[in-house]
Write a structure and sequence with these properties.
By secondary structure, this protein is mainly α. Helix content is 64%, strand content 10%. The chain contains six helices and three strands; from the N terminus they run H-H-H-E-H-H-E-E-H. It has a three-stranded antiparallel sheet with strand order 1-3-2. The longest helix is centred in the C-terminal third of the chain and has 32 residues. It is extended, with a radius of gyration of 20 Å.
């Protein structure tokens, strides 16, 4: 584990209010957490998670419409990975044309609850972020002093 990751972990531990991780963690657990973050913290997984949380059982085509801006190939890749990770169930109805539906599993719902804090944080700090971006884009940040 690199020095910067140790610093991040320390900050996370200090910021956590419940279910704080133990001071020393298992390397296998660290690897699993990194893998999960890489996989679920991507744009499409989070958007699919949000849509399924809001709409329940959703057909594949409708899922793509509700997510918006996602290619069929990327949506297929995303839901397959989510299914592999146990976050969604895929039901294929034997009709012509085939009807495929997705819904969150209990594990998927629990992940949605865990990431709900991100939305709450973004809502609370959205204006601050927008102001910081405007300042940065306008050259007000990082200027050298005379």
């Amino acid at each position: 584990m690199g020095k910067s990751m140790g610093l991040k972990k320390t900050r996370i531990q200090k910021a956590a209010v419940a279910d704080a991780p133990p001071a020393a963690t298992d390397p296998k657990l660290d690897a699993l957490v990194r893998e999960i973050i890489e996989r679920v913290a991507d744009k499409w997984t989070m958007l699919v998670l949000e849509v399924l949380e809001e709409h329940g059982v959703v057909r594949f085509t409708r899922l793509g419409e509700l997510v918006g801006g996602v290619s069929q190939k990327m949506l297929t890749k995303t839901v397959r990975q989510m299914e592999r990770d146990g976050l969604v169930t895929r039901t294929v109805h034997p009709v012509i044309p085939p009807r495929v539906e997705y819904q969150l599993t209990e594990l998927g719902h629990s992940l949605g609850a865990a990431f709900c804090g991100v939305w709450i944080w973004a809502e609370k700090h959205g204006e601050e972020i927008e102001r910081a971006r405007r300042d940065f884009d306008g050259g007000k940040v990082g200027r050298m002093l005379p």
